[in-house]
Amino acid sequence: MIRKLAIFALALVLLSLAIGVSAQDDGNYTIAFVPGVNPDPFYITMSVGVNQAASDMGVTIIQQDPPDFNVAVSAPIIEALVARGDIDALITAPNDKEQSIPVLQEAFDAGIPVITVDTFIGDGNYADGEVTFPLSYIGSDNTQGGYIACQSLAESLGEGAKIYIQNVRPGISTTDQREDGCEAAAADFGLEVVRIDYNENLADNAQQQTAAVLQANPDVTGIFATNTFGALGAGAAIENAGLAGAVQVALFDASEENIGYLRDGTVSLVIAQKPSDMGYLAVALMTGYLDGFQSIPKRIPTGYFVFNAENVDDPEAARFIYSSNVSEIAPRFDESFNLAFVPGVNPDPFYITMSRGVNAAAARLGMTVIQQDPPDFNVAVSAPIIEALVARGDIDALVTAPNDKEQSIPVLEEAFESGIPVLTVDTFIGDGDYLNGEVTFPISYVGSDNTQGGYIACSSLADALGEGAKIYIQNVRPGISTTDQREDGCEQAAADRGLEVVRIDYNENLADNAQQQTAAVLQANPDITGIFATNTFGALGAGAAIENAGLAGAVQVALFDASEENIGYLRDGTVSLVIAQKPADMGFMGVIGQAALARGVTSFPERVPTGYFVFTAENVDDPEAARFIYTG
Question: Whole-model pTM above 0.85?
């Protein structure tokens, strides 16, 4: 008990230190940005996002523009940047999904982390595909985009219509996928694809090719152009042939010229990607990675806006048009931007560590953090705190860990309806599916895959104990999204691996309760050989009960949350496994999500899983593992 009180006293001190944390002293990183080609309205617009994020995050951008969309041109540029020796990271749009691999691998091998934007290398699956060294691929779902375009042609033209695809060059990841998506829609809706041409990213080529196809195939009634240059050429050919309206045209990329074709009736649909979003998120997340906050999704899809004759002049749609001019960068955030942070409970080493991430991101951005800590993990305590913050009238954004997935909805919805964007960390409301679930107003849910975490924990018990072993689950309270899922994951592992769950107790987030409950269960059930505790307080109580009963080693214990206390239990053999979440990453990413929204970015993922580190007796003293221990 003395040990437990000591850690909480230390936590209070560390919390006060965490509030004043700042970005690391050497954090003015130099990030190289190599777009696919320039001049190009798409990449010019992406550059605006890149430079806005650089201003916000306090980093330096070195931009080098290939004059042609060609790996033979971009590879020497990247090689020269690597050779400089002062580049901390690289953000680029690869020109070829296979041929760009060697030069990017060379950068990575030189210690330069890589994010690709718009285009990808390999198969684009950086989690477990053929190429995994890039941190993330941030770009549109291009197969979906091609499908949307050609589905729209089918709806206009009807079954049996003949269409033509104007593409760039085989081997470019994005336009390959758009072509595939269009062909899939054509097959599904009964269109005939008469021909596909490749223009080498030259509008003049596209214009000549389109004119020739229209002359040779007067029964072609639909055209899909896969990018800006193909769109410009196809649009010009239609206009010159006097076929505006007679041939339905779907264009990819919302350049000002393409929007002009839509306005004058030359084309019927323009699909806008979100290049500024791609650039902003790449720089913001890369900066976080360099700062040590490394839970970057391997894939961030950035979505579309579809322009048609009905919405083309809507003022809200104007921001999705690509600009040919570099826009003025907004001033950096300052202390007048108030970000409210309401953790689940404090003192708690988990949320103290999360606070470090929140304050590090805010310091990067120049924001003010207003942190209010509930003394109990209870919606009856946290709701009045949030209500008071809303009533202040000066809160610009809210990051919070809801105490109950249903009961926390009303107070957070009230904040949202008052104009305060909401992002949840660690825990969620509703079913956690903020894209199309029962609650969709929060920006994102940033936190662990807790079902997976519970499964990992109880699979480890099964590995140690064998089929037929009896285990006990020490949980918090029904209705908390994360610990409900951990319990579910453990029970699933028990069912899969032949363990018997003897009992589940709920400690109301009190270590004393957990200790008393665990002691009673062990006394009543001496054949229990495994315990899973779902969070810090249950872990502390279960660990203390095991220690007091002299059962260290006799009962295998898997604990959730890597507090210093729990790591101590692992070191002395009281427990066999400690699962560390990444609360600092949650806090950092939560603030980045709010900053991105404030800059007009609409592509921050609705779900950001932050992963785990699993501590065992073998790795607990590894210096690389130390950063996953929760501290202030």
Answer: yes
